Hints:
By secondary structure, this protein is an alpha+beta fold. Helix content is 35%, strand content 26%. The chain is built from three helices and four strands. The protein has helices at 26-38, 67-79, 98-110; strands at 16-23, 43-49, 55-64, 85-88. The chain has a four-stranded antiparallel beta sheet, with helices on one face. Helix 1 packs across helix 3 (98-110).
Amino acid sequence: RRAQPAPGQPAGQGAYAVELGSFLSEDRAESFAAALAADGHEIALVEQPDRAGRLWYHVRIGPFASYASAARQRERLAANGLHGIVLEDISSETVSMQSGVRAAANRTQLD
């Protein structure tokens, strides 16, 4: 993954995201995603195994049509203490789980 596209090189489908956290705990990832969703962000939760076979849960917001728009959102979030990285061409790997995140947000509000 490149943090920034090479000059003059188009990115796959033009889909970018800002990754704000990676967790080994699915519950922690869903809780963090639910908090972001409550703030109005479109959330994607991506499951990805590492070389040791552990399953990581990556919490991302997006997609954004351009690197510039994703970077602007990353800067706005950083001003509020949430630091992330811009990822490019997420279209083939990201499966949105917004309904699951909304359910988690509802559970949190009910508790």
